[in-house]
């Protein structure tokens, strides 16, 4: 690092700010994690205390895992999230490619129409969505959730990806056309690899709200066979009694799959394969 | 092997007419260069020949066959782009072979052609590298190799040397000239660099405002420019233009004299003027002078000359080297 552009005081301030922010965002997760391995009394008496030999208790985890259905809930969450991300990336990228690559009547209007989805929350349409799902017999299926989440994710995906696709060199696509690649081959083999970092960004932004969502699973797929993790954890929250050990344990467990997915995508974020395509 | 005929080719983007009726014949084996200022339509014309843009109207024939509705890959052309446009995830060998592979050519044939092209461009050592591991000059050679491998009827070059530094550009220019001699292929080349145009072309097409201004060999354009635009565009430093009336030439509107066709003397000459700036280039000395009679003049002298700003000098145009242009800008011969 060159001395000319950094001063100790500035670096300190920047780091203090970043550390403070990290603490604030990590603290709730930390609290959830430590309390998930404490006994019920210790959770209430000293919620801030780290688990000690006396207060250490895995009863939450044994409850959750002993429940038996939790494996299914995890599976449901994973299926819904992964399939929805895949569909969002595929269709979002295709729409973005069309909008950025081809001149056609209504191109701008179409772009704006898709961007509307970012501004209007999909939950406003819940009643209509539920009616639609009932009419098509999709209530209490994972398909219903996948469809809704795909719709929810596409606007942002199109928005981000079309900006990135504009930066892919025209010459490269034209070279592909002259070499006889079809438009699909140009899209899948030339353009997609070059916008991979953007795809990873979109995947992360799409994944987290889907994984954490409680609303649509509760409304569209509350049956035992289709419950997701966040919905499954609700069985421990009662009107009068809440099994905090189990709730915290369930939430702690729910962090890990999404963490793995995140790490998977963030590797892509960092890997830059674009160098060398054009000068 | 490859001839090209364009007949009243027009192209409009919305209300903007980019090409206003281009007629051009390119013979088999010719090296044709399109030059013109930016925005003159030269790149659009090349892209239309390649099939990357559709024409608004007009006909394009390659080897006598109408290709207006034929996709780029089946026109029998190959194109080299300014930004190289190599496939970043493929090795040099696969970059060169992709077009043939798409066309379903046999593997052995592809191998053989890639081998031949890479030998021609001394790329054998790099066949297994990716574009990111090559220098700018090597990348452009790969791009040219990718074109050669296709054995096209027409080679199209879109400002292929603009991204290279000056020394490499001269080197690649020689290489392209050599390739043209060896392959005896028809090449169409777009550039805004008139040195490239003058040194490489059999035939130069000067474009401006979507219209062909003149077609001819480099020396024809230099010695007999058809109009004011071509006269001003070809040659560096640019031709001096003088209002004919100031010199008492009633038959013409403008007179043009190239900087290298003016002699300077301290003692006597036709036009007296004051030196306002001097550029010493070693082989040449460029003298700018302001004269009452003809206005600002650029004079190019060969070798070293010691004029200084403020000196009074006399300029004399070489006999028979004055170009005359009428009121419509056309040359009067």
TrEMBL record, chain A:
<feature type="transmembrane region" description="Helical">
    <location>
        <begin position="111"/>
        <end position="130"/>
    </location>
</feature>
<keyword id="KW-0813">Transport</keyword>
<feature type="transmembrane region" description="Helical">
    <location>
        <begin position="246"/>
        <end position="265"/>
    </location>
</feature>
<dbReference type="InterPro" id="IPR035906">
    <property type="entry name" value="MetI-like_sf"/>
</dbReference>
<keyword id="KW-0812">Transmembrane</keyword>
<feature type="transmembrane region" description="Helical">
    <location>
        <begin position="186"/>
        <end position="211"/>
    </location>
</feature>
<feature type="transmembrane region" description="Helical">
    <location>
        <begin position="12"/>
        <end position="34"/>
    </location>
</feature>
<keyword id="KW-1003">Cell membrane</keyword>
<feature type="transmembrane region" description="Helical">
    <location>
        <begin position="78"/>
        <end position="99"/>
    </location>
</feature>
<keyword id="KW-0472">Membrane</keyword>
<keyword id="KW-1133">Transmembrane helix</keyword>
<feature type="transmembrane region" description="Helical">
    <location>
        <begin position="142"/>
        <end position="165"/>
    </location>
</feature>
<dbReference type="Pfam" id="PF00528">
    <property type="entry name" value="BPD_transp_1"/>
</dbReference>
<feature type="domain" description="ABC transmembrane type-1">
    <location>
        <begin position="74"/>
        <end position="265"/>
    </location>
</feature>
<comment type="similarity">
    <text>Belongs to the binding-protein-dependent transport system permease family.</text>
</comment>
<dbReference type="InterPro" id="IPR000515">
    <property type="entry name" value="MetI-like"/>
</dbReference>
<protein>
    <submittedName>
        <fullName>Carbohydrate ABC transporter permease</fullName>
    </submittedName>
</protein>
From TrEMBL, chain B:
<dbReference type="Pfam" id="PF00005">
    <property type="entry name" value="ABC_tran"/>
</dbReference>
<keyword id="KW-0547">Nucleotide-binding</keyword>
<dbReference type="Pfam" id="PF08402">
    <property type="entry name" value="TOBE_2"/>
</dbReference>
<dbReference type="GO" id="GO:0005524">
    <property type="term" value="F:ATP binding"/>
</dbReference>
<dbReference type="InterPro" id="IPR047641">
    <property type="entry name" value="ABC_transpr_MalK/UgpC-like"/>
</dbReference>
<keyword id="KW-0067">ATP-binding</keyword>
<dbReference type="InterPro" id="IPR017871">
    <property type="entry name" value="ABC_transporter-like_CS"/>
</dbReference>
<keyword id="KW-0813">Transport</keyword>
<dbReference type="InterPro" id="IPR012340">
    <property type="entry name" value="NA-bd_OB-fold"/>
</dbReference>
<comment type="similarity">
    <text>Belongs to the ABC transporter superfamily.</text>
</comment>
<protein>
    <submittedName>
        <fullName>ABC transporter ATP-binding protein</fullName>
    </submittedName>
</protein>
<dbReference type="InterPro" id="IPR015855">
    <property type="entry name" value="ABC_transpr_MalK-like"/>
</dbReference>
<dbReference type="InterPro" id="IPR013611">
    <property type="entry name" value="Transp-assoc_OB_typ2"/>
</dbReference>
<dbReference type="InterPro" id="IPR003593">
    <property type="entry name" value="AAA+_ATPase"/>
</dbReference>
<dbReference type="InterPro" id="IPR003439">
    <property type="entry name" value="ABC_transporter-like_ATP-bd"/>
</dbReference>
<feature type="domain" description="ABC transporter">
    <location>
        <begin position="4"/>
        <end position="234"/>
    </location>
</feature>
<dbReference type="InterPro" id="IPR027417">
    <property type="entry name" value="P-loop_NTPase"/>
</dbReference>
<dbReference type="InterPro" id="IPR008995">
    <property type="entry name" value="Mo/tungstate-bd_C_term_dom"/>
</dbReference>
């Amino acid at each position: 690092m060159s001395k000319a552009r950094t001063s100790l005081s500035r670096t300190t301030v920047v780091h203090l700010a970043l550390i403070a922010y990290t603490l604030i965002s990590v603290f709730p997760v930390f609290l959830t994690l430590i309390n998930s391995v404490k006994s019920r009394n210790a959770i209430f008496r000293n919620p801030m205390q780290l688990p000690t030999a006396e207060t250490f208790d895995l009863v939450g985890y044994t409850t959750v895992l002993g429940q038996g259905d939790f494996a299914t809930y995890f599976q449901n969450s994973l299926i819904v999230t992964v399939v929805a991300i895949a569909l969002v990336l595929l269709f979002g990228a295709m729409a973005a490619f069309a909008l950025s690559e081809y001149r056609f009547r209504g191109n701008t209007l179409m772009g704006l129409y898709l961007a509307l989805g970012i501004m209007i929350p999909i939950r406003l349409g819940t009643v209509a969505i539920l009616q639609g799902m009932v009419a098509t017999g999709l209530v209490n299926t994972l398909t219903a959730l996948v469809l809704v989440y795909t719709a929810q994710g596409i606007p942002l995906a199109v928005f981000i990806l079309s900006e990135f696709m504009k930066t892919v060199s025209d010459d490269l696509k034209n070279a592909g056309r002259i070499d006889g690649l079809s438009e699909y081959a140009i899209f899948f083999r030339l353009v997609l690899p070059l916008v991979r970092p953007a795809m990873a960004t979109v995947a992360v932004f799409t994944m987290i709200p889907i994984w954490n969502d409680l609303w649509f699973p509760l409304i569209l797929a509350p049956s035992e066979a289709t419950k997701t993790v966040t919905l499954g954890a609700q069985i421990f929250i009662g009107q009068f009694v809440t099994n905090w050990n189990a709730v915290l344990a369930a939430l702690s467990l729910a962090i890990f799959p999404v963490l793995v997915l995140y790490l998977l995508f963030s590797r892509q974020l960092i890997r830059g394969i674009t160098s060398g395509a054009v000068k | 092997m490859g001839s090209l005929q364009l007949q009243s080719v027009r192209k409009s983007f919305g209300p903007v007419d980019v090409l206003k009726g281009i007629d051009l014949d390119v013979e088999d084996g010719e090296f044709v260069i399109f030059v013109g200022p930016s925005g003159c339509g030269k790149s659009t014309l090349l892209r239309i020949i390649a099939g990357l843009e559709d024409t608004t109207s007009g006909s394009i024939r390659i080897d006598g066959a109408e290709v207006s509705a034929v996709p780029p890959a089946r026109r029998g052309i190959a194109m080299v782009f300014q930004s190289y446009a190599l496939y970043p995830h493929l090795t040099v060998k696969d970059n060169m072979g992709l077009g043939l592979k798409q066309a379903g050519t046999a593997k052995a044939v592809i191998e053989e052609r890639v081998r031949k092209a890479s030998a021609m461009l001394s790329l054998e050592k790099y066949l297994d590298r990716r574009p990111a591991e090559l220098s700018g000059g090597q990348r452009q050679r790969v791009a040219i190799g990718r074109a050669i491998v296709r054995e096209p009827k027409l080679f199209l070059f879109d400002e292929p040397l603009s991204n290279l530094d000056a020394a490499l550009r001269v080197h690649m220019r020689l290489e392209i000239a050599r390739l043209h001699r060896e392959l005896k292929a028809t090449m169409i080349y777009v550039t805004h660099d008139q040195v490239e145009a003058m040194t490489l072309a059999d035939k130069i097409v000067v474009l401006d405002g979507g219209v062909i201004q003149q077609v001819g060999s480099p020396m024809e354009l230099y010695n007999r420019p058809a109009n004011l635009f071509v006269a001003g565009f070809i040659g560096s430093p640019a031709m001096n233009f003088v209002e004919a009336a100031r010199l008492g030439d009633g038959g013409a509107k403008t007179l043009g004299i190239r900087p290298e066709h003016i002699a300077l003397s301290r003692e006597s000459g036709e036009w007296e003027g004051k030196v306002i700036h001097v550029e010493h280039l070693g082989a040449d000395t460029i003298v700018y002078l302001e004269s009452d009679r003809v206005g600002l003049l650029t004079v190019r002298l060969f070798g070293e000359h010691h004029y200084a700003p403020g000196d009074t000098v006399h300029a004399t145009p070489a006999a028979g080297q004055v170009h005359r242009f009428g009121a419509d800008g056309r040359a009067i011969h």
